[in-house]
Prior knowledge:
By secondary structure, this protein is an alpha/beta fold. It is built from 9 helices and 11 strands. The strands form 3 sheets. The chain has a 4-stranded mixed sheet. The model has no long low-confidence stretch (mean pLDDT about 90). The structure holds zinc ion.
Amino acid sequence: MLTLYFDGSLQQLLPRGYRNEAWVDYPLTRRASIKDIIESLHIPHTEIFTITGRDRELPFSHLPRAGEEISLRSFPDGVDVTQPTFLRPTPLPKAAFSVDVNVGKLARLLRMAGLDTWYDPRLTEQELADQSAVHGRILLSRNRDLLQRKCITWGRLVRAEMPEQQLTEILSLFGLCGQVTPFSRCLECNALLQPVDKSSILDRLEPLTRKYYHRFKRCPACDRIYWQGSHHQRMQKIISQLTTQPQCVRNN
Ligand SMILES: [Zn+2]
């Protein structure tokens, strides 16, 4: 028998029968790594921040023996993905995301917050996993099987149900509240917006937009025009609500 300890956030992910239990007695019937054991309980390895044995941190490849006690802890809020950890020694150059279709609305909100976010509902699960891994993007999904794929190092099983709560979850978890830059990224294609002179796009503006707005940006990839209108105010409102909430942890 192996004894596993799960912290509060991981306890909620345990299968029925174990759910909300801190301690799980796991029958060791085969030679398996701790990663395989965790995932046999259907908790993706992406949710594990540290694995600790009696007196040291353990890698995912650790082969537990009968009688061992192992503690598993989830990501604390404010994790900085640009810093190496024992389980993830190769950090990411920055927090960038790829978003699965089951949390598709989150993609637009992340872009609204100015964060680099890929979203392509045409990709297969395998393509999404491969591209996230190859390009160093944190894969956001509610699909446990997808996050259990071997190639994935960085991911998050999104817990919140509503898109705006999902945005809070992600900003807090990865300590990004201080990096929010609304009106900087195209909501449709993720490219960084560039300022554009109003005079050069006058013929593309509706009369009221032409009359009341003066600051415009253009997407260099898809040519959409953005201005600080009602959608921008909504964006500012969401972001300011998020960043004033105590649960939004900043890294900077
Ligand atoms: Zn665009």
